Amino acid sequence: MKKFIGFFLALSLILSCNNKKNIPDVSDIKADFEWIRFDKEFFAIDSDNVIPGLNQLQQKHPMLTGIFLQSILGLDSASVVPGVRQFLSLSNRLYDTINTVFKNTSDIEKEFKKSFQFVKYYFPNYNIPNVATVAGPVDALAQSESGPTPDFLRPGLLGISLQFYLGKNFSIYKDPFFIENVAPTYRSRRFSKEYIVSDAMKLISEDLFPYQASSKSLIEQMVEKGKQWYILDKFLPTTPDSIKTGYTQQQLDWCTENEGLIWSYIVKNEDLNSLNPVVIQTYIGEAPFTQGFSQELSPGNLGQWLGWQIVKKFVSKNKEMTPDEVMLTDTRKIINEAKYKPK
Length: 343
Hints:
alpha/beta, 18 helices, about 5% strand
């Protein structure tokens, strides 16, 4: 009897948590996509007989093969065969690690499906892309509106670069050259598989709502960045905030506990309407911490977290608005109506 009571208590807690976040039931939403292990297919090519394997890949995945050879490996038509042969011979040990870490990806596939169901729930007309895993060089970070990213998005295709999700203690990530030229430690600590879907959904949100505030003031850019995390929360409602924001739990706790002090400091020491790119970069740029605050406890990109709180304050006063309407609302309207004054 006690076991049954315990079970129902646990169930009620889960349901109450879901209700608090107003998480919709998306179990019947259709969100079909193909999961492509391009990394396995590519590394199955015989390095002594490259051309037949490449031809097969080109026929099966024409767009993806072109992206991988040209944009990731950086090869032109004249250098494809020797370049592929060299990459295969030099990367066997790296791929052995990738194949070990990602031997089974069923959990990640399920997480993608659930997230895509939320995307389709809120944006029914959005075309869900196929998802392809690739394994490229460890210096091949792509660029997005949010900065360097391990992934890439093209029409109908979402690419996941597995070499950037091997765990924060992977030896290459700790190499001085990698730290200096590819990703500093505060970034590479997020190079773990639990960040894959969150990183991918950031690209989806940018695809839905391209960032268009780069010429606007500090406070407007903070709120526009906050919108990105607001919509990400809709796509990943049960994912920990530490994964979505990239902050450590300690940094998140510090932000929550000191929200009023953080806001007061910025209001007193900065012009919220500043257009100075140095000031804006201080608060919405990637960094190990935010200047003016604790180097041990503050996260970089603190302005985006504050912008997120402003958006949530606005939404709490406009509960009838859909996520689409919130995202399209003028930033100044959000700022004015939120009346954000944390204590």
